[in-house]
What we know:
Layout: E1 3-8, H1 18-25, E2 29-32, H2 34-38, E3 46-49, H3 53-70, E4 77-82, H4 91-97, E5 103-106, H5 111-119, E6 127-129, H6 135-145, E7 149-154, H7 160-170, E8 176-182, E9 190-194, H8 196-201, E10 208-214, H9 251-261, E11 268-272, H10 278-286, E12 291-296, H11 299-312, E13 317-321, E14 336-339, H12 346-356, E15 362-367, H13 370-386, E16 390-397, E17 400-405, E18 408-413, E19 417-424
Amino acid sequence: MTVHVVGIGLDGAAGLSESAQQVVEMAALLIGSDRHLSYFPQHDGERWALEDLTAAILEIRRHLATQAELEVDAGSIVILVAGDPLFHGWGRLLISQLPSDKLTFHPHVSCVQLAFNRLQIPWQDAHCVGSQGHYFEELTAKLKLGVEKIAVLADETRTPAAIASLVKALDLPTRYEFWVCENLGAADERVIQKSLESLLRESFAPLSVVVMLRESPPKAEPLDVAKLPLLGVPDAAFVGCGDRPGLTVEREVRVLVLAELALQPEQVVWDVGAGNGAVSIEVARLFPQSEVYAIEQTVSGTSAIELNCGRFGLQNVFSIHGTAPEILHRLRPPHRIFVGGSGGGLTKILGVSALRLLPGGSIVLVLDALEDIATVLSWIGDRVRREPHWSYRILQVQLSRSLLAGDLTRFDPLRPISIMTIDRLN
């Protein structure tokens, strides 16, 4: 007895290959959902409406064992499933529960494949989120990475509105275009582009695929600066760095960094490894008479800094495209230095920063690797032994944001970091 797993689409029996149709016709036992079984009203074999796959697998195993004992072949079993059984389908479970020599798969075109073909977009590099497992956790991780193409399988509970709510709650600088592909392969198929806000309001067919395409270059939405808080600007107000979302310092971390910097009016501030310039912009808005130098070695980061400064209407942020510490020798001596990224040159950056830092100044670093913390501690230890007017402190930060994931609210952790502040007393 062979168990055939036949993938099928919304076009029903007409969408099956000739060989797959023959497999279904010859089945002694046909198993599938009510919708899948309805595609074969003339089938005269035994039929099981698939309600509990686990129970069905137990019964199939019993059938196989009975036939083996009797040494007879009572005909094949066919399980009807959606699309490709081995693509976010029941294939994995069936392989783990049934003998591999008894299984034969007949894949149909997957809904994700159909979605990208309808959009005429290559999809070999797309990231897919299925309807099983840690659904929202997986989608959150991909959004934080800022991947270029995401296909999300929606259903009755994980709706496009729920997906849109998650995207909005994450408040990420990376922006996406949204396409909803409904009932792919059926007569009422619909493929439409929607804004994030319209996804929150509208309802769609349960059998949908939401395709998310990262905007590149990112589109700058209109910004009403007057409505923004003076401190703690939302992450989404900034244009991100394309495929490098990690270059953005999160709002909660920025607020803590600003507190540690202990800024005063009319100071010179260096932002080393500025990313998209979020920290520089916060400083410049708080102290319009200060000079802020945003140093960033990536082209995407430098472009984002300049774009964001224009959006916020700032004239006191100077975007510097270059690599630290070499570029630092050309800048005015600073009162405050923030190091958000070092590009592997942390010790050299600290050395130049210490030489250029004005008396009474401070260096604030955001570190997420234990090795970097050890490097800074080693450096400051050597410095204090030679120059006792240096001191330091460390603030360990572990923060989480609440997120609405479907009907549930959960905490999504931000990246754990340590904020190290080095003060020059005189």
